[in-house]
């Protein structure tokens, strides 16, 4: 999985890049282990929303991952008082989005399997032709 980090309002340092990689990229790779391929791109935008404020929720972290073969985009945004807290909040939100995506996909699979089973229902007697023959001979 490729990681692209964009910063707005401040300079990206190596420590911030490593923090974003450890907190967001690695957990997403674990969650999307089966679907994950090298062509997936994780876009992270770290921003200071204002230049003149010093306190409050001024740090923003946006995470966006496009799943090309599924034609789906998973998106999370978080505002917090520190950059680390914003990264943590975005991590929790994107993990929740991934779990919702996987649950929906699994429930669609189960629904289709149930439908297929109902359409191809075979009676017990047809499943065991040898037993049917023995049952008829006893009568």
Layout: helices, strands, pairs:
Elements: E1 2-8, H1 14-31, E2 41-48, E3 59-67, E4 72-80, H2 83-119, H3 124-127, H4 129-138
How would you describe what is shown here?
- With 139 residues, the chain is of the alpha+beta class.
- It has a single domain, classed as Double Stranded RNA Binding Domain (2-Layer Sandwich), CATH 3.30.160.
- 50% of the residues lie in helices and 24% in strands.
- The protein has helices at residues 14-31, 83-119, 124-127, 129-138; strands spanning 2-8, 41-48, 59-67, 72-80.
- Strands 1-2-3-4 form a four-stranded mixed beta sheet, with helices on one face.
- The protein starts with a strand and ends with a helix.
Task: Please sum up the structure shown.
This protein is an alpha+beta fold and 139 residues long. 50% of the residues lie in helices and 24% in strands. Helix 1 runs parallel beside helix 2.
């Amino acid at each position: 999985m490729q990681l692209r980090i964009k910063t707005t309002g401040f300079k990206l340092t190596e420590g911030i890049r490593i923090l974003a990689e450890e907190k967001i990229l690695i957990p997403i790779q674990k969650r999307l282990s089966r679907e994950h391929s090298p062509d997936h791109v994780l876009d992270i935008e770290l921003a200071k929303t204002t230049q003149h404020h010093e306190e409050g929720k001024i740090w923003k972290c946006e995470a966006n991952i496009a799943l090309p073969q599924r034609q789906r985009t998973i998106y999370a945004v978080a505002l917090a008082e520190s950059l680390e807290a914003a990264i943590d909040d975005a991590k929790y939100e994107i993990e929740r989005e991934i779990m919702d995506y996987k649950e929906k996909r699994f429930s669609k699979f189960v629904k289709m399997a149930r439908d297929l089973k109902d359409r191809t229902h075979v009676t017990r007697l047809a499943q065991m032709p040898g037993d049917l023959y023995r049952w008829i001979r006893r009568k």
